[in-house]
């Protein structure tokens, strides 16, 4: 079974040379720490920066330089700042190659819900709806089940949707999966996790073509 | 050259009245028009509709106006950092229109640009698309979205000159650059008002034509929401 | 009767304090020379400059700094450069207060034609269609008649239109007129020109409320 | 950081073939991609559709491609400076689509921004509006206009770095900034390729994400169309 860093590590393997990548809040943010150093890539943050670097050293925080999670950040050589409209030109215009974001629910048809629990939690969708409606390449990073132990990989989402039929791959603490026309296709098991465990934790249709390899992370 | 410097924030907000629709720049607390917000708290203007990506935090930014119940409606994309906001929303005291961030930015940009409406894929198939016209382009469904209409836009820049030219620093540019010129009157507050001619015409982020009034803000707290750092070695 | 500079001089009186002004090619360009020096204004050129100044001194021409007529220009303090999309945001978004342009024909309902003579001359509309479709305040600068002596102030335009019902005022070598719901209203006569002469040179409906003052230029 | 520098203009144009649709930056002869055009003349690529505000003059800019009959169709707003153009158009050898300049710019911008279509008042009631959808917004009629689709965009900047960040000088920015990122492949030629990190991130006009290939042009003639000067006193 993977922890959050493990999930990030597995997703980092999906980052290809030359990619512009947008990372959501939470586990996705950790992906930056695990990309192979020989991969050329740049991180885009929708609040208006390309070429994000690591957090600043203490005392060097600049309130005018933050990421979409409102965290103080630094920039790398070659970075640029721009306004929100230009930022979403990059996103909607499919110039961002890979979007990695968290989810409350993913459905076997690729639907995703991650912005609202009616009557209980309403934080807003931020840039997530633009990202999932536009990106060709969307990976969800999340736990396989919620705090109550219920599956987050469903036949149909029960929560208000963020986007329809858009999720391509999913990395969880238990597995790495692909969304296909016929359901969730199990690609890899997390270290030490059996196919049976993944089956039990997945409500949506699970396509299993044995043997299912264990992740190599 | 057209001079637009006003003497004070109070002169800058001249004409602002109850029930108006305002655009406010900033992302989280980064690049928010601190002086204009403080002045609104002071004047007690009420029943306002705010177009702003976020709603501040409980005790800063638009949170100050929420505390005083001055806001009737928020049009935002993300409001997760504000408990008072959530309380007012769930109790029905506050009307809230949550829309995708890119759509928010583009509806500002459209207002600035005389584009009355445009199509975007964001939100199609979700609650956001309910009741909206949709249409297929290139095999993909899109929603028709309209330019905002606002009475005032309050934007905050790093440097500006008397003719309204603005330059931003870092990610404080965000919605400020899209909202300038998107309302009937755009008020720019700047950290530093520099002499006309001292800014390179090639480096201007917002040309002065989009700004009607400009003034140098008194102080800027520039509060950090998430102070994240790394160890020195 | 006015020459081209005279027409420009009359139009210059319409430029108010605080105006952003877009000048077309030809007579409109001359307006810049005649605006009262105490008027605060800025000239916008649709190829991407605000705060245009006079032509450069010989030897100081910069091929990268031109106006929409492709002429080398200078900029004044407070100027800014921007791209074509931003430029037309200024125009379509009605941030430009006054547009002054030439015309081949103007109709009494405010229609204007100035970009095409079918089969003979096709230069294109450039930014004129955006300008006339957007500006609230459009003044046409032109000769009252064409080279053949035919009126250019018509009941209906015969040439392909640039815009519909958009022209507000017209300054010619003979007169200064306003476009109203009922036709061209004669506001002023050019120095030494009689109402009779203006009548003869105007094909469209001419509204005359005597006495018609002579221009004060 | 992603490196995009290519060794030569010939490498930059790799994949360009007959019948393609191209965007070319520039206004008149100001800011045109001189090296890319020269290379196209050299390769003899033909039947191309050019989206470009102007068509050059007889012996420079796109006029060079017109001379060689390499252009099948021009999509422009103003073509008044080119006799060969007029001849080919009137004889029917050349297809020409004349559209308002602001619409041209915005259709590029829309392609760059993933906006498939938008409404503009420009051209309503004229030939330009014939056969197009129209619609009233705010009591005024507008036309529906669509994003362009192009195979290559050739843009020219003053300075650029290896990751594709671009900075323009003066009015040479024009369509170059709107076309970057508006085609499948954007090629930027620059007067000076500077080291990554030497451009201020606040001053970038076109962020590198919109550019796929970049190279330093060999020479720039930068011909002036209308040399206008004033006397020294």
Brief descriptors of the model:
heterotetramer; A: 217 residues; 10-stranded mixed sheet; 5 helices; 27% strand; B: 233 residues; alpha/beta; Glutaconate Coenzyme A-transferase; 8-stranded mixed sheet; 6 helices; 20% helix; globular
Give your account of this protein's structure.
The complex is a heterotetramer, with two copies of chain A (217 residues) and two copies of chain B (233 residues). Chain A has a single domain, classed as Glutaconate Coenzyme A-transferase. Helices cover 17% and strands 27% of the residues of chain A. Chain A is of the alpha/beta class. In chain A, strands 4-3-2-1-5-10-12-13-14-15 form a ten-stranded mixed sheet. Chain A is globular. Chain B has 233 residues and is an alpha/beta fold. Chain B has a single domain (9-216), classed as Glutaconate Coenzyme A-transferase, CATH 3.40.1080. Chain B contains six helices and eleven strands. In chain B, strands 1, 2, 3, 4, 8, 9, 10 and 11 form an eight-stranded mixed sheet that branches. In chain B, β6 (134-137) and β7 form a beta hairpin. Chain B is globular. The model of chain B has no long low-confidence stretch (mean pLDDT 96). Classes of the chains: A alpha/beta (217), B alpha/beta (233). Chains in contact: A-B, A-D, B-C, B-D, C-D. The interface between A and B is large, with 53 and 60 residues.
Q: Averaging pLDDT over every residue of chain A, what do you get?
A: 96
CATH homologous superfamily heading of chain A: Glutaconate Coenzyme A-transferase
What's the CATH architecture of chain B?
A: 3-Layer(aba) Sandwich
Principal-axes geometry of chain B comes out as globular
User: Helical segment tally of chain B?
Assistant: 6
CATH architecture of chain A: 3-Layer(aba) Sandwich
Give the class of chain B from helix and strand content and strand pairing: alpha/beta
Assign an overall shape of chain A. globular
How many structural domains of chain A?
A: 1
Report Rg of chain A. Answer: 17 Å
N-end to C-end Cα span of chain A: 12 Å
Percentage of β-strand residues of chain B: 25-35%
Number of domains of chain B: 1
Q: Roughly how much helix do the residues of chain B carry, as a percent range?
A: 10-25%
CATH topology title of chain B: Glutaconate Coenzyme A-transferase
CATH fold-level name of chain A: Glutaconate Coenzyme A-transferase
Gap from first CA to last CA of chain B: 52 Å
């Amino acid at each position: 079974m993977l922890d959050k860093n493990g999930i990030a590590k597995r997703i980092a393997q999906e980052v290809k040379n030359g990619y512009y990548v947008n990372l959501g809040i939470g586990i996705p943010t950790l992906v930056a720490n695990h990309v192979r150093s020989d991969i050329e890539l740049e991180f885009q943050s929708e609040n208006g920066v390309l070429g994000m670097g690591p957090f600043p050293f203490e005392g060097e925080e600049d309130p005018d330089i933050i990421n979409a999670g409102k965290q103080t950040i630094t920039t790398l050589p070659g970075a640029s700042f721009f306004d929100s409209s230009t930022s979403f030109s990059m996103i909607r215009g499919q110039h961002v190659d890979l979007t990695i974001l968290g989810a409350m629910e993913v459905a076997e048809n690729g639907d995703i819900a991650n912005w609202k629990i009616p009557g209980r939690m309403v934080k807003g969708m931020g840039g997530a709806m633009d990202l999932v409606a536009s990106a060709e390449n969307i990976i969800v990073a999340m736990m396989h089940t919620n705090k109550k132990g219920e599956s987050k990989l469903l036949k149909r989402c029960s929560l208000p949707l963020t986007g329809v039929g858009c999720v391509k791959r999913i990395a969880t603490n238990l597995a790495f999966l692909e969304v296909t026309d016929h359901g969730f296709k199990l690609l890899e098991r997390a270290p030490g996790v059996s196919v049976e465990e993944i089956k039990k934790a997945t409500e949506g249709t699970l396509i299993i073509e044995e043997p299912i390899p264990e992740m190599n992370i | 050259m057209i001079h637009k410097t006003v003497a004070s924030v109070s002169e800058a907000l001249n004409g602002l009245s109850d029930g108006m629709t305002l655009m406010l720049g900033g992302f989280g607390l980064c690049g928010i028009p601190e002086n204009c917000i403080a002045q609104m708290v002071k004047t007690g203007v009420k029943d306002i509709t705010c177009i702003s990506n976020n709603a501040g935090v409980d005790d800063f930014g638009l949170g100050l106006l929420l505390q005083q119940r001055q806001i009737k409606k928020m049009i935002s994309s993300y409001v997760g950092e504000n408990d008072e906001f959530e309380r007012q929303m769930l109790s029905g005291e506050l009307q809230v229109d949550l829309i995708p961030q890119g759509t928010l930015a583009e509806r500002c940009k459209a207002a600035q640009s005389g584009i009355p409406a445009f199509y975007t894929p964001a939100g199609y198939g979700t609650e956001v698309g309910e009741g909206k016209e949709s249409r297929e382009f290139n095999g993909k469904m899109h929603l028709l979205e309209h330019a905002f209409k606002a009475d005032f836009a309050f934007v905050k820049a790093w440097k500006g000159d008397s003719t309204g030219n603005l330059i931003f620093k870092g990610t404080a540019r965000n919605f400020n650059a899209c909202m300038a010129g998107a309302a009937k009157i755009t008020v720019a507050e700047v950290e530093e008002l520099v002499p006309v001619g001292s800014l390179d015409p090639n480096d201007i982020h917002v040309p002065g034509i989009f700004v009607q009034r400009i003034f140098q803000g008194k102080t800027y707290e520039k509060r950090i929401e998430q102070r994240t750092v790394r160890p020195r070695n």
